Amino acid sequence: MTEKKLCLLDRDGVLNVDKAYLCKTEDVEWVPGSREAIAWLNRQGFQVVVVTNQSGVARGFFTEDVVRELHDWMAAEVKKSGGEIASFYYCPHLPGAAVRQYDVDCDCRKPKPGMILQALNDFDVKPCNAFLAGDSPRDVEAAEAAGVKGFLYTGGNLLDFIQKIVWNLKLAED
Ligand SMILES: [Mg+2]
Ligand SMILES: [Zn+2]
């Protein structure tokens, strides 16, 4: 029996081009190869989850419902490319935030590892069978704090980037 494998992807700057406080589907511009990367990961036996800081909620720019609706739409778009996002984890918090209920020094806002630890637990995956790709050092820091290898994506085709990681980690199945 093969062990369960998990890929954790940051959202803004990895799946979609990072536009400040993105919340509308019409503003989503997919990073080249991002949807294809998810489909490929699935074929390699990985479940794929998204871990994203969304302080726009705490800042009062949009609500959690808006975040969830955007994520449902993104999951549906990825599905059209043959991939599945198994779950989205987002942190709506920010210390000192304008919206009082989200003014929380939480454990989930990256570089803290809360979302990653939650995903490992939810999907029953060992840290050594997981990796994270993000475009910010705080993504990598969060991964390492959870005992997961983190990789800094700095541009280019995401499928190429992800394939190199999986082959180097020898977690590929073909
Ligand atoms: Mg990012
Ligand atoms: Zn949080």
From TrEMBL:
The record marks R109, K110 as: Contributes to substrate recognition. It holds the Pfam family Hydrolase_like. One of its GO terms (biological process) is carbohydrate metabolic process. The active site is at D10 (nucleophile), D12 (proton donor). The keyword Lipoprotein does not apply. Keywords: Carbohydrate metabolism, Cytoplasm, Hydrolase, Magnesium, Metal-binding, Zinc. It is found in: Cytoplasm. One of its GO terms (molecular function) is phosphatase activity. Zn(2+) binds at C91, H93, C106, C108. Its main location: cytoplasm. Mg(2+) binds at D10, D12, D135. Its EC number is 3.1.3.-. Belongs to the gmhB family. This is D,D-heptose 1,7-bisphosphate phosphatase. The lineage of its organism: Bacteria, Bacillati, Bacillota, Negativicutes, Acidaminococcales.
